[in-house]
Design goal:
The chain has 544 residues and is mainly α. The protein folds into 3 domains: 194 residues, Growth Hormone, Chain: A (Up-down Bundle), CATH 1.20.1250; 56 residues; 287 residues, MFS general substrate transporter like domains (Growth Hormone, Chain: A, Up-down Bundle). The chain is built from 20 helices and 5 strands. The strands form 2 sheets. The chain has a 3-stranded mixed β-sheet. The protein has a two-stranded antiparallel sheet with strand order 2-5. Helix 15 packs antiparallel against helix 20. The longest helix is centred in the C-terminal third of the chain and has 39 residues.
Length: 544
Amino acid sequence: MATKQRDRRFPVLVALMLSMALMAMDTTIVATAIPQVVGDLGGFNLIGWVFSVYLLANTVTIPVYGKLADLYGRKPVLVFGIVLFLIGSALSAASWNMLSLIIFRAVQGLGAGSIAATVNTVAADLYRVEERGKIQGWLSSVWGISAIAAPAAGGIFAEYASWRWIFLVNLPLGAIALAMLMRYLKENVVRERHRIDYAGAGLILVASGLLVFGLLQGGTSWAWLSVPSFVVFGGAVLAFVMVTVVERRAAEPVVPPWLWTRRLTAGSYVATLIAGLMMIGLSTSLPTWAQSVLGLSPIAAGFVLAVMTVTWPLASSQAHRLYLRIGFRDTALIGCGLTLVAEVIFVTLDADAAPWQPTVASAVMGAGMGLLSMPMLIGLQSTVGWSERGVITSGSMFSRTLGQSLGAAIFGAITNFVLLSRLDSAPADVRGGLPSSVSDISRLLADGHEDEGVAAYLRDSLHLSMHTVFVGLLIAGVLTFLVLVFVVPRQFPVYEETAELQLADEGASALVVDAAGGKGFADGIGGAKRSDDGGRGQRDDGPT
């Protein structure tokens, strides 16, 4: 019977993988089809919003969906998100101008937020802590493969069919995921009347929306030190202050205060945020450096980064072998140590480095990120019962996405500052041949500049800017290490579940859940002692 139960979880896992693939692919699939989209719809000045609005809508809704999943069950929230995502996909394919495409991409993003908030939560519900590392590794593999394949797939659709198929292809894949979820995932959730925290949800949407909007637009639509920046970020700070006030008084807060007052969750979220920052910093800088400084082809430059998306899920899938022996925190420390090794290698690379050197560093970085991020997520999920796992998981997903937005803003600003400084201080013999804007540097190097002196100066300038980014990544890695050592406790008390996977009468998988809680704490991973208390106060143990 146990074997059959485990086998019946597989269709649900496939549905989760399909859902995550859809969300991941639509983040970047449009990138290679921009010429065709603009040629058909016009509105080139608005093209940046096609990407930004998707990320914005996705990010700001994650905490709200996580709370709803705890109140009403994972299945209705996930199904709603997939349906909304597919509606947005169909409407995007039918867009008649750039503004309509942006609006429909926002609809897609609203659905993607639900997927981001619930996929990892459902996986944690279905599998015990001993199995979650392997399962999350598979989900990470789907994310990595989708991120690599999406731009290529978008280019193929745009060139040989139509850019509209970029969105239409989501419909059959999403329909398969929906059918498998409806057939095989059965939740018997204890239904209760809930007091919806509308004020908290609204303030969270406003606060996170202003923050992400400011990070996306700063340095592009307006200068960082400008009135619009002060207004947007000031509004975000004010909204976050109001969130803390409202959530402390709410009967069922969207973001419970204990998420940030408890050292375990707060430290894990900060470490996850910095990890997201490091990931986006390397992902945006390494291919440019490999192509424009080392002179690699676009395919070869992409491969240098692609090895990270191979070693990351491989390390994630094996992380459980470590954290079951030495604990979540110490496993994350090993991963952080590997990222530091990789970042030191990146910092020491010069403009004449052999291609294998950044490739090896990228592979080490991926392994480190896998061992760093996976124990943080699974560790957090394992410290709470079913009724709080959605909100604690969505907090981790929100931290990672916010870190990516923050990293893109910080490292983009660093790159622009260094390059502008080099253009302004250029010697007289090359100044006349330099481009007027930073955005033209990579293009000129790719096309080949007729003046070797100008090309060499531009290449050195780009190398200096990327070197500065690598130094920033190293500093971020050190900060992560310090957070893990001094903030995140070594002991993660593991919650003993009452939820168990059973076979439904019709032969499908059913997740039978007591939404009121579990049996308390089992022996913790990392040395935590057993407690039969079950109260939140027990989960506030400090580090040892």
